[in-house]
Amino acid sequence: MNRRAFVTGLVAVLAAPFAAAQHVVKSRRLGVLIVGSPETTTSEVEAFRQGLRDFGYVDGQSLAIEYRYVYGRSERASTFVEEFIRMNVDVIVAAGGPMALAAKNLTQTIPIVFVAAGDPVHYGIVMSLARPGGNTTGLALPVDTDFIEKWIQLLKEAAPAIARIGFIEDLNMRLPKRQAIREVGVRRMDVGDLADIGSAFAKLSNEHGGVIVPPQPFFFTYQRDIAALAAKHRLPAIYGFRGFVESGGLMSYGLSLPGAWRQAATYVDKILKGAKPADLPVEQPTKFELVINMKTAKALGLTIPPSLLLRADQVIE
């Protein structure tokens, strides 16, 4: 073998692992559907990135992540899913049940991981929690009778003088537990836009009421506006996510979204290493956080009991 042939062969051998690594980097691509806007979901996105970093994945290096925001309108998800399919992404990560269902309706081959999906069995996203089947799995979000009763209990502790409690619901995505809402004695109020929410809040305020704002995509996107409307009508309110309280709402009790997004990275890692979504049980959260905004409480003239403050995971002064 002459010198030129030897050098050429050596270069080819050394280049092979690099070429293989380049191929892996190019093939590891995620499509991520997010309910809100970039401004309202920074903590969730960062938690997801950190979760991936824990497994050695770095956006822009060992994988590429394509983020798409639907600004509270899950019906926009289909367009982005079609885009992800054209990109041939390895995994689709979808926030909430409606977007996970939109993804599942368009692809039965690309693995889908959902984050905080309410009642995924009811909506047909998975066959069962223990055995999801198909190409979809992830983290569920409970909104059942017990959870609604917990919201009522906490709201009445914070504002014992309220005479009525309203439960606002996005009429474009009604919750499956409607019977549960009736059973606990709250007044269900369908809303389709911010004007409807303002009208509902005005009625409840006139009735010396309070309000439950469940964790639905539409409400999440407009958390600042909704918190402002509650303040305008001097309405005690409890929300499903802490972002509302950070935006000026009174209190929240629910799943930690950053924690859920970080946990979603575990599913992504397992799938990228060869696991099938059908074999990965849906995880149900066991820890929830209570957050109270004392500035808002004072503005509403409320004295939060010390016993409630002691149970809070965070008190915003």
Short description:
The protein has helices at residues 3-27, 42-54, 77-87, 97-106, 145-158, 178-183, 194-206, 217-221, 223-232, 243-246, 257-272, 294-299, 306-311; strands at residues 29-34, 64-69, 91-95, 112-118, 136-141, 164-170, 187-191, 209-213, 237-239, 251-254, 289-293, 314-316. Helices cover 44% and strands 20% of the residues. α2 (42-54) links the parallel β1 and β2.
Structure write-up:
The protein is α/β, with parallel strands linked by helices. It folds into two domains: 3-141 and 256-279, 3-Layer(aba) Sandwich (Rossmann fold), CATH 3.40.50; 145-254 and 289-316, 3-Layer(aba) Sandwich (Rossmann fold). It is built from 13 helices and twelve strands. The strands form two sheets. The chain has a seven-stranded mixed β-sheet, sandwiched between helices. Helix 3 crosses helix 4 and helix 7 (194-206) packs parallel to helix 9 (223-232). It is elongated. It starts with a helix and ends with a strand.
**Could you give the order of strands across the largest sheet?**
7-6-8-9-10-11-12
Number of helices: 13
Shape: elongated
Question: What is the subunit organization of this protein?
Answer: single chain
Biggest sheet details:
7 strands, mixed
Low-confidence stretches: 10-26
Query: Which superfamily, in CATH terms, is the homologous superfamily of the largest domain?
Result: Response regulator
Strand content: 15-25%
How much helix, percentage-wise, in residues? 40-55%
